[in-house]
Amino acid sequence: MLREVRPLLLTALASVVPQALVAAAPLTASSESLPSFDAYVRLFNKSYTLEELPRRRRLYESALREIEAINSRPGTLWKAGVNRFTDAAPEERPRRRSPGARPTRRQRAGLVPSGLPAVGNWSESGNATAEGNLSEVSPSLGSFRLLPKSVDWRWASGPIKNEAQCGACWAIAPASTLESHVFLATKTRIDVSEQAVTDCTYSSGNTCNTGGTLEDAFAAVVKRGIADAGSYPFVSARTGHSGRCLLGHGVAPVAGITGYVEVEANNPRALMEAVATVGPVAVGVDASKHWDYYQGGILDSCDDHHMVMDHDVVLVGYGEANGVKYWLVQNGWGADWGEGGFIRIKRRDRPVCGHDSKEKGAIDCGQCGILTDPVYPTGVHLRRHGGGHHHHHHHGGQDRHGGGSCAAYGCAGYAPSHGCQCNRRCEKFGNCCHDYRQRCHHRRLSSWVGPVLV
């Protein structure tokens, strides 16, 4: 079993992204820049027996050849590199969820054949409600449909999680999404327990192996609430097994939601609107190709024709670097993976679509299938002392017409010469945030540089 590696310290996640992360020009790397196996063992503080060393060396050298092949491709926008997975056997690499183990939204809607029982949406009372049609909702902004050129919610994100020995990406992605939404709604930082989601979503089975869906995870939070990681730590990362649900049985929930929204699938505009106006969105992706080796840049090498939706992550924004558009994604493989725990995935205005390799007849769109299954929580609230009384909060920065997020749209901004002001464009459309002064002040204190006033 691989030893855990101490995560690298993250630099401040401000809106000014370090230049090393912004560059999207073709990347190249030579074999001289990659460490030898002995140097790799020292670099990542590995510890092996003499009998195990030859096997690890062979695994490392095999991975190195693949990394060099990736980096030698002309015009590639990303760089492959070594990390703590490089000398791992396939079964030791990050565990993906099992596609087809749980009914997806398309199967529940009858769009894809499934021999699995139907699963409904959860209402706030905890009762399953029949689902006649696929519940796909895209935020509507009325006449004000101008989206910002870039969105970055990393300042609202919690610490990068690490699934380690438990294939619980389907639980980690909703937990990380909830952390951001709790902070945006209540200004309270909570390290949401991914163990609670892992244990309490399904009544049986080892969910580290059988996996789950984003919708079922959010439905369980509607029903049971969520605990903080301090009172409900992620022990499955070490054991590889889920456990008995402790929510309501010794562990009290600290926050909850009243529902969740399934953003219209395979629609890049709908996903951009959701992340720009609401906040981070949990999404499914195909991580079967090259993710293990990702070190930086804009990933553009997923198989566009045959996808396997085997991983769940959090979409925290989007942007553009050197003319290349990208989605900004928070992964759950630790902060020493990728760009400080994040990955940028190529974004197209007209996405390429491919056939799903597991759900026959289904179509997945976007690089790595990122447009296929976006979901975000609604009605975020704190639960005091584990009681049933809900303290509802609306996301700070909502405009007068309930349209979009003040921070994402740049309706409030701080300029040294003008102080805190409402964006004139927002005033024109009648959408200026009523609390823009507070938002501006918060932004200035956090050193988060907002969009330029226009």
UniProtKB/TrEMBL annotation:
GO terms for biological process: proteolysis. GO terms for molecular function: cysteine-type peptidase activity. Residues 402-446 form the SMB domain. Residues 1-24 form the signal peptide. Pfam families: Inhibitor_I29, Peptidase_C1, Somatomedin_B. Keywords: Disulfide bond, Signal, Zymogen. SUPFAM superfamilies: Cysteine proteinases (SSF54001), Somatomedin B domain (SSF90188). Residues 95-108 have a biased composition (Basic residues). Residues 84-113 are annotated as: Disordered. PANTHER family: CYSTEINE PROTEASE FAMILY C1-RELATED. Belongs to the peptidase C1 family. This is SMB domain-containing protein. It comes from Alexandrium catenella.
